[in-house]
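mind reviewing this stuff:

——
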Amino acid sequence: MIEEPTTPDMGLPFASRDLDPQLTVRAERVGTTVLVTLRGELDAATEPLLMAQVERQLDESCQDLIVSCKDLTFVDSSGLRALLSVRACCAGTDTRFQLVHTNPQLDRLLEITGLSRAFQ
């Protein structure tokens, strides 16, 4: 019997796992304000995409970073950790951070974890 290679995180055969990114991160800059729009799933597998874009934007002297979540279809605890990391990165560079257009699933996750106020 030949075993197929598996993904280290899920134990699924590579052939049965979609390897395309499940998150699109788009940044638009107007002056010193950057709007980061997220589309898709924010979880442990896609967190690096968000963090890379945020780090790129903060390196360019961004004064306001706005993250729009209206097109997120899934957020788990790793995705929530990513949003907290973005908030911390902004605080470390004196950049104002705002989370906008949250959806009911994200609102519920923030409520359950007691983090609603952290993103107001």
